[in-house]
């Protein structure tokens, strides 16, 4: 618990004392219409590191100079490039490097994981998801079920919210898991709900799922690079994430996958491709699939080098800032934001993000929400509007400051005071 003062001078002091303040300058901050923008949209698309262009350029130059030989030559041969990303990602998601692979994009990877980890047996064939799961997750699960000849309406169980935007407690989820002991084959939730910003208790949910013999997986789009995770220790079977939010690897960046090591050596149903073959065997062009002895066995295709290079550039920044130090600063920013928000009355909005959260806060407006959003945008704050009535914003420890948060809350207060009278 920190002790704060609600003043600009105090916000400046927090920034001066911030050991990570130099990292802000390692990113390109938007400046559209000649207005320096305050970027609070790391929950949607993280900012571009200044080093990304050169990293991508390097791959283009290698391609130009060495052609296909670049897979084997140079400082960072492309053949092994993927593996060097794993160490830093392992720290971020709390896993062993060999439990991670970097490939495809998030929705594609969810499909691939369903192939391996949805294992219905008789009536134990249900999948538990959030009623307000991100639509792509819902489409992936429903279409996969139809593909294997099942009716999604018979299989999917949603943990319901009575009211739109009302968080479901972890206890409620655990209770549903226990009640559905004989039916659940898979529990698949997000780590952080994209709409409410709620961080689920992954450890408790995983424990409950294991205790009834169900598989457990998570969509970590909003959690990877945002909150502390211990995927291995929490005994989670699989997880997938995108790298364009808190991992700052750029639009459509290559996704990440975690598969617990206990699944690496068992016979498993899996869609396979040549890049999943053990490295020593891969270019022997045998008919037989000899899997890599790790999560790489889920890889299908030649890695997208331009995307791996941009992920590498952003992971290097997280590495030099230090993951633990970033989490510490994030904790302080969360408390600072929560403290300042208390100074605004609840005449126009209510906060739907529970205390257990990452960077993102969601404010649900009773009225005039869009006007508030436009007012803030015109002032230079890049935040987002989620239909039907929510403003989301996410101050990020790598590139946002305590003063930006203070300024934002003042502008929010101004807008609320003005618009609550209308
Ligand atoms: C929670 C969640 N799941 C899935 C997706 C879809 O990701 P992709 O477009 O990389 O497949 C997103 C995209 O923002 C998301 O936020």
Can you characterise this structure?
The chain is 37% helix and 13% strand. By secondary structure, it is of the alpha/beta class. It folds into two domains: 8-36 and 322-419, Aspartate Aminotransferase, domain 1; 56-319, Aspartate Aminotransferase, domain 2, CATH 3.40.640.10. The strands form four sheets. The protein has a seven-stranded mixed β-sheet with strand order 4-10-9-8-7-5-6, sandwiched between helices. Strands 11-12-15-14 form a four-stranded antiparallel β-sheet, with helices on one face. The chain has a two-stranded antiparallel sheet with strand order 1-3. The radius of gyration is 22 Å and the shape is globular. Pyridoxal-5'-phosphate (PLP) binds next to helix 4 and helix 5.
SSE order, as H and E?
Answer: HEEEHHEHEHHEHEHEEEHHHEEHEEEH
Oligomer: single chain
Calculate Rg over CA atoms.
Answer: 22 Å
Heteromolecules bound? pyridoxal-5'-phosphate
Number of strands: 15
Shape label = globular
Number of domain modules: 2
Strand proportion, as a percent range, falls in: 5-15%
Question: In short, what is this structure?
Answer:
This protein has about 425 residues and is α/β, with parallel strands linked by helices. Helix content is about 35%, strand content about 15%.
